[in-house]
TrEMBL record:
It comes from the Eukaryota. This is Plant heme peroxidase family profile domain-containing protein. The lineage of its organism: Eukaryota, Viridiplantae, Streptophyta, Embryophyta, Tracheophyta. Belongs to the peroxidase family. Ascorbate peroxidase subfamily. Residues 1-20, 247-280 are annotated as: Disordered. Plays a key role in hydrogen peroxide removal. InterPro entries: Ccp1-like (IPR044831), Haem_peroxidase (IPR002016), Haem_peroxidase_sf (IPR010255), Peroxidase_I (IPR002207), Peroxidases_heam-ligand_BS (IPR019793). One of its GO terms (cellular component) is chloroplast. Its cofactor is heme b. GO terms for biological process: cellular response to oxidative stress; hydrogen peroxide catabolic process; response to reactive oxygen species. It catalyses: L-ascorbate + H2O2 = L-dehydroascorbate + 2 H2O; 2 a phenolic donor + H2O2 = 2 a phenolic radical donor + 2 H2O. PROSITE patterns: PEROXIDASE_1, PEROXIDASE_4. Keywords: Calcium, Chloroplast, Heme, Hydrogen peroxide, Iron, Membrane, Metal-binding, Oxidoreductase, Peroxidase, Plastid, Potassium, Transit peptide, Transmembrane, Transmembrane helix. It is found in: Plastid, Chloroplast.
Length: 430
């Protein structure tokens, strides 16, 4: 399995004493399962090949390793265990993202990267519990058997573009790379920032690929109910179906691949990238809400509307969202970003189980609340969150906020001044 490099670094004492480590050649022990555990529940095996040792040594250097102690029933085992690397190395993912940006700039492959990520994830079946039988974002689309599924026609080109990046970064998985390429393509095309997480584990053999037929058809007899059959099976809802369909704001359909679309149009005959095909939108390398506007208006024969695209304005439930996205790009971006992140996680097995972000800020970080509490602060140390909450509550009780000074009540001030003047006058009069 790619980049799965659980390893145990024996202490010098452990190396010299035990039979398992008495060989003249220093060896690394690998340990599974990979969480902190007692030796009785562990199975040890030696990494004999030099490449495995090299991989483990590389892994040992990685900054994201978690280190923990291994305990025997008799106490300290005398060894520090490096529990394991995550499925992908975060630093390598970040570097790969820069390479993907470069690739996008030079080849204009944004659309096919988005389609690649979607087709790897979109095989998910929520009714199957076992991984990888349930399908989803597990890198299975790297295998020829799945690339040959009719729905995946042409995606081999996306694989070819990404392979050099995969070769360059040994400790990232295909599953992560596909989703990274897709999310980066959306963002680089001007779309929303997608709250992605990483750490997807790859399937390891072609027989773990899903069977053909899990992805949607563009021209089924009843498009709306077909879309629901397929996307509900993935655990997605009507809003998510419509938002995700908005990815067709990018790219083109090519008759020689899918059978849909014109060989070329005025918008595609000169590229950029390989010329030809029929796009859904005029500016098919820019991510915006023009897909919804163009389908609604049907203003140009040169723009594609698949039967499943048309269903978004024909079906009453889909239509609510399609109309909204045609009017309000921000609403589309917000819903798209959320739905894309959800799609990218479908069926995935994460290592670590919660996944990890490669953005400097946390995946879905809330904007930090501005807080000014100079009056209450000693100036030497930050107030606790509890104290901030109490102060905020006090302010709010009198209709104010710690972020801005309380509004003066001029009327009350005037009455007080009049009252004081009246009191003084009466005192002086007496
Ligand atoms: C709703 C059901 C969907 C159907 C029936 C459908 C169908 C298709 C078809 C027929 C093509 C043309 C492929 C070719 O000839 O090269 C295509 C392309 C594309 N699809 Fe979809 N799709 C669907 C949903 C999605 C979703 C959910 C996404 C992404 C989130 C997506 C992203 C794309 C992109 C970006 C392209 C352009 C690829 C390129 O230019 O190379 N599609 N789709």
């Amino acid at each position: 399995m790619a980049a799965n490099c659980s390893s145990l670094t024996p202490s010098p004492m452990a190396l010299s004493g035990g039979s398992a480590t008495s060989s003249a050649t220093p060896r690394l022990l690998s340990l599974s399962p990979t969480t902190t555990a007692r030796p009785s529940s562990l199975s040890f095996h030696f990494l004999s090949s030099s490449s495995s040792v090299a991989a483990s040594l590389k892994c040992l250097k990685l900054s994201h390793q978690k280190r923990t102690k291994l305990y025997s029933s008799g106490g300290d085992f005398g060894a520090v265990v490096t529990t394991k690397c995550f499925a992908s190395n975060p630093d390598q993912l970040k570097s790969a993202r820069e390479d993907i940006k470069e690739l996008l700039k030079t080849t204009y492959c944004h659309p096919i990267m988005v389609r690649l990520g979607w087709h790897d994830a979109g095989t998910y079946n929520k009714n199957i519990e076992e991984w990888p039988q349930r399908g989803g974002a597990n890198g299975s689309l790297r295998f020829e058997v799945e690339q040959k599924h009719a729905a995946n026609a042409g995606l081999v080109n996306a694989l070819k573009l990404l392979q050099p990046i995969k070769d360059k970064y040994a400790t990232i998985t295909y599953a992560d790379l596909f989703q990274l390429a897709s999310a980066t393509a959306i963002e680089e095309a001007g779309g929303p920032k997608i709250p992605m997480k990483y750490g997807r584990v790859d399937v390891s053999t072609p027989d773990q690929c899903p069977e053909e037929g899990r992805l949607p058809d563009a021209g089924p007899p009843s498009p709306a109910s077909h879309l629901r059959d397929v996307f509900y099976r993935m655990g997605l809802n009507d809003k998510e179906i419509v938002a995700l369909s908005g990815a067709h704001t990018l790219g083109r359909s090519r008759p020689e691949r899918s059978g849909w679309g014109k060989p070329e149009t005025k918008y595609t005959k000169e590229g950029p990238g390989a010329p030809g095909g029929q796009s859904w939108t005029e500016k098919w390398l820019k991510f915006d809400n023009s897909y919804f506007k163009d389908i609604k208006e049907r203003r140009d024969e040169d723009l594609l509307v698949l039967p499943t695209d048309a269903a978004l304005f024909d079906d009453p439930s889909f239509k609510v969202f399609a109309e909204k996205y045609a009017e309000d790009e921000k609403a589309f971006f917000d819903d798209y970003a959320e739905a894309h992140a959800k799609l990218s996680n479908l069926g995935a097995k994460f290592d670590p189980t919660e996944g990890f972000s490669i953005n400097d800020e946390p995946a879905a970080a809330a904007v930090p609340e501005k807080f000014v509490a100079a009056k209450y602060s000693s100036g030497k140390r930050e107030l606790s969150d509890n104290m901030k909450q109490k102060i905020r509550a006090e302010y709010e009780a009198v209709g104010g906020s710690p972020d801005k000074p309380l509004q003066s009540n001029y009327f009350l001030n005037i009455i007080i001044v009049i009252a004081v003047l009246a009191l003084l006058t009466s005192l002086l009069g007496n």
